[in-house]
Amino acid sequence: MDMVADLGANRLYRAPGESSHQQPQRWFNTADITVAHQSNLLKQLNQQRRQELFCDCSVLVEGQLFRAHRNVLFASSGYFRMLLSQGPDGLSESVNATFDVFSPETFTVILDFIYSGQLDLSSHNVIEVMSAASYLQMNNVINYCKNFIKSSLDISVKDEDSDRCLSLSETCSFTSGAGEETSEQQQQQGPCSISPPPALWTRDNSRSQSGFLGKDPNQEVSASALTNPDSPVNELSTETEDLQDPQDPLYTLPGSERRRGKGGTKRRAPNSTRSNQHEDLDIQGARTQKAEKAEELYATLPPIVGVIGHFTKDSNPIMRFKCPFCTHTVKRKADLKRHLRCHTGERPYPCQACNKRFTRLEHLRSHFETIHQARKLVCRKCKCQVTEETGHVVCEGTRRYRMCTACIQEVGCDNIPMDSLDGPNEEPALLLGVDGEEEGDAKRSWMVTDDDDLAEDSGADLIIQQVDDSDEELQ
DNA sequence: CTGGGGAAGGGGCCC
DNA sequence: GGGGCCCCTTCCCCA
């Protein structure tokens, strides 16, 4: 045999009929052969699907019937893999699947991708395609969607002024190898490493908006959620952090890359230079655009996908709501809305004292009481319990904490830089310049007060203000 | 290097 | 649906 099908290696083989001692007349590059063969095979399968030849699987999406090949679906989707391998019908009979959790238009995009490697994404459908891909456990599609979003954000921020960007409103299509990649490929690919090369993007403004928009968020579903722990989707729970800019104070990195604590908050030098001001403007501009993009994401977010988590003893299904960005499900829509903030980076609750932002009001309140109001009745130095009478409040910048009388005497008031004590009647937020706490810090790094109830006497009340980022940053 | 503590973030669930 | 509480985990700082 002169030719060996070694599809994985890029090798040269003689054409059939040529002996080894003959001068080769033609050489074949197997990489080219492989690509051509795969392309041809895919075209054939796609033709068969369109002609409904050998289709042994019916997929009903909101009443619209799609015919496909079971083996192709099996190879492309973790969901179908599980469905087809666990189905009661076995492998000999045709299989039906019904979906109401995404639209026929969305499934068309998915199915076209499966059979052609072309993923038609637009700003209108990317979220719902990603949601559907998450449901169908198609890791590669999820990655493409995330990169589409990421690229759109990056391009828009960088190039908006020069109008060279590919607008989000335009439709793009990714070209990819068909089918699901291996896990190894996916790891190599990673959400950051497969930014779609712009050259591969083709504009197609003809595609209409599709999908979830306008659908009933409380719609029932007929397909149960698959909670396969081995599902590749489960590996993606934190990957949407790609949507966030690590340099952006508005955004935090979910999971392990979160910035927390004192060391995590970037502090500006007291003397802000002109270049710093320029940087501030740049950061604010980027922050504004990020916030706008988050708003855009919210605007295009599909109604929450309901899935059936499990059944009660009475065999009543318990509906859960699935996050379109990860595999997390919650019982209540409100909880999902709260959860979504960890993906969008939205932090609507700024601390008036230190400008730090929080995703939840209770976190802001807790932060404010702990950091700025010295509500903890514990001596910071010796950790002993103090009362409001014995616990003197020490102010360090906008930070306030309590020390017991003994520790105050031990340290000595002389060693604590005393301020003019006109501060207690000012609330921390008022001590600050617009740029943050450092101005206040420089002026009054330490203060000791005998206020027993700082909240009342100092006026350090928590002012809850929900800030519209875009408006705030433009000021 | 390690363990403890503080602060922050997130989920579940009750009101 | 929002607010709030409780609990747990994670991260960072510091001794």
Automatic annotation (TrEMBL):
Composition skew (Basic residues), residue ranges: 259-269
Gene3D superfamilies in UniProt: Classic Zinc Finger (3.30.160.60), Potassium Channel Kv1.1, Chain A (3.30.710.10)
Domain BTB: 55-123
Subcellular location: Nucleus
Entry GO MF terms: DNA-binding transcription factor activity, RNA polymerase II-specific; RNA polymerase II cis-regulatory region sequence-specific DNA binding; zinc ion binding
Keyword field: DNA-binding, Metal-binding, Nucleus, Phosphoprotein, Repeat, Transcription, Transcription regulation, Zinc, Zinc-finger
First-listed, main subcellular location of the protein, grouped into a coarse class: nucleus
Name of the molecule in the record: Zinc finger and BTB domain containing 8A
